[in-house]
Amino acid sequence: MSERAAVPGAQVVGRVGRLLRLVGSNPAGATTTWLAREAGLTRPTAHRLLASLAAEGLLDTDPQSGDWVLGTELYLLGSIAASRFSFEELARPSIRRLAEASGESAFYSIRQGSETVCLLREEGSFPIRSFVLREGVRFPLGVASAGLAMMAFLPAPEQESYLARWSEHAGRFAEGHTERVVRQELEQTRLRGYSVNPGLVLEGSYGMGAAVFDGNGNPVGAVSFTGIEPRFRPERRGLLGKLLMEEAHRISLRLQGSRER
């Protein structure tokens, strides 16, 4: 019996956490049917949990569509929790410089267990954008440019633990991010120092990323660009990669300095 199954109520907590994350990844709202399918629940079970969360103010329904959205209680809790973290101070100056220097949309993402989650976004001056990534979007580790950048510098046994069950781990992204392709991209990332995602999430939408490291050398975050394919031609990638690695290094130094104080 797993530890989660052995603890009374732990399964319910896991389901609730999954539903909250799914709603959070869809700012415009999510239907009960979609949430049930993505969470692996029956529709009645999902609806019962969602209604309970709404009663506590953690979720709400959009007045026009009726879809589930995050509630005011989560905003209040998040505001309090924000004081413990310094992502704005840590990474906002870097992604702002990246957006200004490149004209592309720039992002800061962190590792959260087996996923990456985007926390910050800065728009560049180039008028055509890719909207694959935005604040709150989660990907399995190893998927998209930030996830590739972080996974590439994990210890080899930890990488293999994900690759050994890659289809299960990557889920709906496994078709574009096949194990063979991901292994190749991870190797190239280690050689270059930055990742390139050549339209694997969405055809025509490219991404590049560079990992941020803590004081123990663990990849804990990443800066990245996304944009349309013509903006990421091979002759420009060297410049973009250099910009990413410089800012990733700056954030790593600030992160390590803040932990030492």
Automatic annotation (TrEMBL):
Q: Does the keyword Translocase apply?
A: no
User: Would you kindly state one Gene Ontology biological process term found in this protein's UniProt entry?
Assistant: negative regulation of DNA-templated transcription
What protein am I looking at?
Answer: IclR family transcriptional regulator
Q: Which SUPFAM superfamilies match?
A: GAF domain-like (SSF55781), Winged helix' DNA-binding domain (SSF46785)
Q: Give the IclR-ED domain ranges.
A: 73-257
- Give the organism the record lists: Sinomonas humi
Give the superkingdom in one word.
Answer: Bacteria
Task: List the GO molecular function terms.
Answer: DNA binding; DNA-binding transcription factor activity
